[in-house]
Structure formats: C-alpha cells, structure tokens
C-alpha cells in the first residue's frame, strides 16, 4: 500500500495509452500492423516495470529540506529555500510542490529541477505575508522521475511547521543599519538643516563642510594654528536625549481599509516598530499605546535593552474588531499615564472634515500638554482615478466626487495646523519614510 500511495503516473503514460488505443483501432482495418502494435505495447509495459524498479529499489533515494525562518516579516518579501539532494545513480528530473499556509492562497508553488547523480541543489523563492499571526506550513512533496519520465515516486519531507508572522522587523533592521551608517537618505529620509542646536555640549572637533560657522571655536582654532596651515575647530553639540516618544495606534474601523493586501492598521504597526527602533537608536525613549472602542495595551516609554523586544511582542499580538474609536478614553488615559511632555504620534485616518472635527476637542487638549503629530492616509486608488483623464460623463462625475474627497483631506491638514497640531498626510506605502522624516525634523528643530 505504501508503494501504491507513492506511485504516480505521468501524463506521458496516458498519452501513450491513448496512442496505442488509436493504433489498435487502425490495426483492425490493417491486420499487418497488429503485430507491430502488440510488440510496442509489450516494450512499453517492460519500460514501466524497469522504471518502477529503478525508482523503488533504493529506500531513501532522495532528500529534501525546507529552510524557513523561525518568524516571518509582515508585508515584506521573506526569503525561503528548499534543499535537494539526489541519492540515485542516474539523472533525476524532479517536481517540487511546497504546501504553503492557506493564508497565502497560492496554488502555483511548483518548482522543477534536474539533478545529476549525487548532486545537490537549492531552490530559492520568496513569500509576502499580509497578516500577523501563526502560519502552518505543510509537507514538501518531491516527485522523482527517471529520464523517460513515465512514472513518478513521491517523497514527503518537513511534515508540518508553524511559523509566526511578526510586524515588519526586516524593515526595522534595514532602517537601523542605514541609521547606524548615516545613510538613511537612501530610503528617502531627508537631511534636515538645523535651525539651531541644543545646549548639550559634546566635543571640539575639526571643521567639516556643512558645519554651522557660528559654532567655530576661535580659541581652540588659535591653539591648532601653526606656521603652515590653520585648522578650524568647531564646537559639536548633541541632540537632547531621553525624550519620550509614544506611538498611538488607532485600531478602529477607519483603519480597516486594505492597500496592497495590508490594512492601514498593519501599515501603522510596521511604521511604529521602525520609528520606535530609530527613537531608541537616537537615545530617546520609545513607548506604545493602542486603542479603539476601549484602551488596549500600553508600553511605557523607555530605552532599556529589552524595550524593542517588548514592543515587538505587543504589536504582534494586536487584535481588533474594528469598532468605533473612543478618543475621550484615549485622552483620559494619556493624561493620567503620561505625565512628562512627550512626542505623540497618532496613527489614524480621517476621510472627511466632519469626522475630524468630532475628535478635534480631544486632539487640541492633547496638543496643549504634548507635541502631537497626527498621521493619516491618502487614498492611493483615488489618486489614480484623479490622474487619469475622463472619457465619458460617468467618469467626469466620479472625478468630481474624487476631487471633493481629496480636497477634504487637504482641509483636514490645514485645520489641524491652525491649532498647532503637526500632521502627515501620506500614501500607505510611504508611511514609514515620511514618519521617520518628520521625527528627525522635529528633533533637529529642538521641538522635543
């Protein structure tokens, strides 16, 4: 029974049997052709028997292994690989089918390879999850054939593995690496010209192009001057440190809209993870607060070594029913739990001016006690509609309605800025870069 279950017949066999059927029908009219067809059928059956022996005479004729990380990064292309090793003494064409978790809804994961005797190969591919949670991988099915490719023997490996999909830690590492090497501009992070500087003196160092000439230390320059050359020395000041930075994530119904497979909530979660890591790298204290119809989880601002792991675990376990958001509960919680003036990055979404005005009293109260930055989203599909020319009357009406929604988004930005509330209106895919840009800008201007 085990042999029968692992034995598969290829399409070539069915085509050959169909061909023999046609030949037998023709031989009924041409009797001289019948012996030739019978001999061909016997040879074909012998070939099937030989293939069966070749495939099953070796107990472990093939080996495969799926290499998958212990956790996957949500919204990113995660690299996976399948290791193949041929133990047969002949060239083996193989077909590999990887049983992916049902969340991916993919039915095209079929890889083909050709291995020489004792050869090893690695098949590499990528997966992009769009939901956090646990993903259950099935078996790796390898169908091994002989060079004739009449029969297949199925091998199964990696019988089930559960992998957790976390918020975008790959993006977090990428930003952290570029921040450490001062190359954030490669990801669209702008260099902010400093209007001034903090009063925290760091060191005296040689002048480099781009330094503020007002920071030249003439006494130190005089001491470094010799008969041949003059070396300008400047005072170097460091950014103020240990400033609390909180990411406030709205889990209400306004964050349910999907863009490129991810909900706005997951975009906000990924951006919060990256920003928290950058804040800790800049010696600030990162914290987190989630809310919807009630207050969710809160992580107090800190920059201890385990803070990022704590934030990552909290973000991974976020669940919501996308109900109506309670901003009054948010304000009450912040007032009692966050006593020190902090930078509050509120990730939410407003579609209309009236929706924003309903929450404006609470936003203004928060802006009086903290530096509030409201981050909400531009509808990229609406932007695509507005950029395309109208072809008929219906499209003109649609573009008119789209222009109204687009105008309201801009009105929301202006009205919030009138009350001293910082804002970011961004496309979902640009959320992380724009948020980090704004954080560095506020920090460079000494606003936090």
Automatic annotation (TrEMBL):
Residues 203-374 form the DUF58 domain. It holds the Pfam family DUF58. GO terms for biological process: cell division. InterPro entries: DUF58, vWFA_dom_sf. SUPFAM superfamilies: vWA-like. Keywords: Cell cycle, Cell division, Membrane, Transmembrane, Transmembrane helix. The keyword Zinc does not apply. It comes from the Bacteria. The keyword Cell division applies. The chain crosses the membrane at residues 7-30, 36-56. This is Cell division protein FtsB. It comes from Arsenicibacter rosenii.
